[in-house]
Amino acid sequence: MKFTFKPSPNYRQPQSTQSIMFELTLGLLVVFGFSVGYYAMAYNISYALRALGLLAVSVVCALATEAIWCKVLKLNVKDHMQSSFPWVTAIILTLMCRIDISYYALGVSTIMAIFFGKLVFGGFGQNIFNPAAVGRSIIFASFTGNVAADLISSATPTTAIAGNGWLLAIPDGISSVCATATSCSAALIPAPTFVELLTGTYAGALGETSTLLILAVGAYLAWREVIDWRVPVTYLGTLFVLATVYGLVFNQGMVYGLYHILLGGAAFGAVFMMTDPVTNPTSAAGRVVFAMGCAIFTLLIRVKANLPEGVLYSILLMNLMTPAIEKLMDGNQIKTEKKNWMIIAIVAVVGVAATLICAFANM
Amino acid sequence: MNRKENFVAGFVKENPVFGLYLGLCSALAISTTLDNAIGMGLCVTLILTASNMIISAIRKITPDEIRIPVYIVVIASLVSVVEMLMAAFMQELYANLGVFISLIVVNCIILGRAEAFASKNGILDSALDGIGMGLGYTFSLLLIAFVREFLATASWTITNPFNNQVILHLGLEFLEPFKISMFSTSTGSFLTFACFAALFTVLRNKPAKKEEKKEAK
Q1: Pairing assessment for the beta strands B155-159 and B166-171 based on DSSP bridges
Q2: Within an 8 Å CB–CB cutoff, is residue A142 touching chain B?
Q3: Is A141–B191 a contact, with Cβ atoms under 8 angstroms apart?
Q4: A108 touching B, CB under 8 A?
Q5: Could you give the CA distance from residue A193 to residue A201 in angstroms, rounded to a whole number?
Q6: How far is the alpha carbon of B71 from chain A, nearest alpha carbon, in Å?
Q7: Helix A131-142 crosses helix A103-117 at what angle (to 10 degrees)?
Q8: Distance (Å, rounded) from C-alpha A9 to C-alpha A12?
Q9: How is residue A269 annotated by DSSP?
Q10: High-pLDDT (> 90) share of chain B, %
Q11: Mean pLDDT of A128-150
């Protein structure tokens, strides 16, 4: 009889956490490089330098925070950095900001994101919330006015459509949509064309605009098994379906759902933030439910809340739910398959129902 | 424990806010400015001392079965008196503190000290305990407010609550563009509170650790 000896699967896996995070960093830098190139071409070189400066400030702040943390706790700085990856948080946070954010605001929010979002929970692998999302929400809460003026004066397409209550055109006889919106124009928004939205050649957050590139990087990372393909696919699919349902109620046409995917941080959040293995459920079915929940919250926040964007807070809300999902869908996945499908179906029904209630309430 | 230890315990060792986590609701809500912190802290100190003394005085004639309602009646009467006085003489502070003055009735520190200390000790001890705990509470509020007011407005202001005259204004104008407005909201108060609570836990555990080390040797 022949025995074969092999180490257990988690040791046999060729990928280490280090190599995964390295490839993720490369993917993020590709998106950032495109953004720098776009600002250099469309405006001038000083914009590109400013983007690079923002990234440098954020990364330096993140590294410094972790280094001080190590000094206080008397840890080896080099060992800690190799298993903590503060730069990933810094890069994601920078990519979520607009180019007109001040260096100070980005630096402070990076420090807070690393410290309050990650280190106090016990460092990489222990955090409940996505640290970059924590940092972005701190900017939302504190520094919305703290921007370098005269960089981008016009509203971005995302804020423009948010000002219209996330509708392309307000149908006749519906005015209550505008109740929460800041500036309502009954006319069609001069929205960017689909090509512009896909390639990302318009003003917006640094890394959230070029949907096509983000999806390409996401596909590569999914093929390399750095991220789980289920999360972005489920998220974008659910968001598209729900937005189409919402759009049909307001007679916006079938392409309306695409705007929800292309505008704002939907693609970026789906590829780079929801796939964060630390704040995600571990089982495949749990991740599907997680992504669906994110999509539902994104749509509800976009059309109902007085915020320009919903992706960020939807991620934070579902991070909060992750332990519950984990508890609900834990166990032998083959045995609980039927139950998992039931849960997914229930979440889907709840999502569609909530969207319809929202739509008719907004009428 | 002698009287002095009892009095000092309220500051670090048994600090009601950072050590016992009592009275957090008001501490988190009103610690936006130093003015509010001083007003609220002294209010609580006054009520706590008075209620401790009264409850200690009647501790022998209070039936055990209905002691909680008795305490509540005593505390609520004192709070009503203080509330009306504030409405009459310190309108600005009264408006700023709002509902949290009436909520002193259900402040855990006051009921907790009545139950844990005043119902078992003499009047003088209870009064000292009330003053110590109240000043500990004031001290914690001042710490939170000190950080929050500076981060949110880049200045410190202390006003006289009776005539609203500014006694002290320390503003650092060059820091004006760098203020973090989040610290005037509840998010900032939770973050500040958590940092201080961690610091106090470290301070409290330090002597214990030293003793452990000594024993190990």
Answers
A1: antiparallel
A2: yes
A3: no
A4: yes
A5: 10
A6: 40
A7: 130
A8: 5
A9: I
A10: 28
A11: 80
First to last CA, chain A: 74
Residues 119-138 of A with CB under 8 A from B: 120, 138
Tell me which of A187 and B112 has the higher pLDDT.
Answer: B112
The token duo for B39 is: 């007003």
* B191 to A116: CB separation less than 8 angstroms, yes or no: yes
Q: Which residue from A50, A111, A123 is spatially nearest to A81, judged by alpha carbons?
A: A123
Block residue for tokens 């109240």: B134
Bridge partners of residue B171, in order along the sequence: B155
Q: How far apart are CA A100 and CA A98, in angstroms?
A: 5
Q: What is the pLDDT of residues B37-59, one digit of tens each?
A: 999 999 999 999 999 999 999 98
Q: Do A138 and B182 touch (CB under 8 A)?
A: yes
The pLDDT of residue B172 is 79
DSSP A335: T
Q: How far is A148 from chain B (nearest CA, A)?
A: 11
Hey, is the C-beta of A141 within 8 angstroms of any chain B C-beta?
yes
Backbone angles phi, psi at B168, to 5 degrees: -145, 130
Which residue among A104, A120, A142 places its CB closest to the CB of B181? A142
Residues 6+ apart with CB under 8 A from B172: B154, B155
Q: Specify the residue for token string 């166990």.
A: A331
- Among chain B, residues having any CB pair with chain A shorter than 8 Å are 177-178, 180-183, 185, 187, 191, 194
Residue A238 makes CB contacts below 8 A (sequence gap 6+) with A291, A292, A295, A296, A348, A351
Closest approach of A23 to chain B, Cα-based (Å): 34
Tell if the CB–CB gap between A116 and B182 is shorter than 8 Å: no
ipTM score of the complex?
0.80
In what helix (H) or strand (E) does residue B73 lie, and over which residues does it extend? helix B67-89
Give the integer Cα–Cα distance in Å for B62 and B118: 12
Q: What backbone torsions phi and psi does residue B158 show, to the nearest 5 degrees? A: -125, 125
pLDDT tens digit sequence for A222-266: 998 888 899 999 999 999 999 999 888 887 777 788 888 888 788
CB-hemisphere CA count at 13 Å for A272? 37
**Alpha helices of chain A — where are they, by DSSP H?**
9-12, 17-42, 45-73, 77-82, 86-95, 103-117, 131-142, 157-163, 194-199, 211-223, 230-249, 256-262, 266-268, 284-304, 311-328, 337-362
Burial (CB count within 10 angstroms: exposed 0-12, middle 13-18, buried 19+), residue A156? buried
List the structure tokens of A306: 């007085």
Tokens 């003053």 belong to B131
Among A104, A120, A142, whose Cβ lies nearest the Cβ of B182? A142
Which residues partner with B166 through β-bridges? B159
How many residues are listed for chain B in this entry? 217
**Dist. CA B38–CA B80, nearest whole Å:** 19
Residues with Cβ within 8 Å of residue A193, at least 6 apart in sequence = none
The one-letter code for the residue type at A9 is P
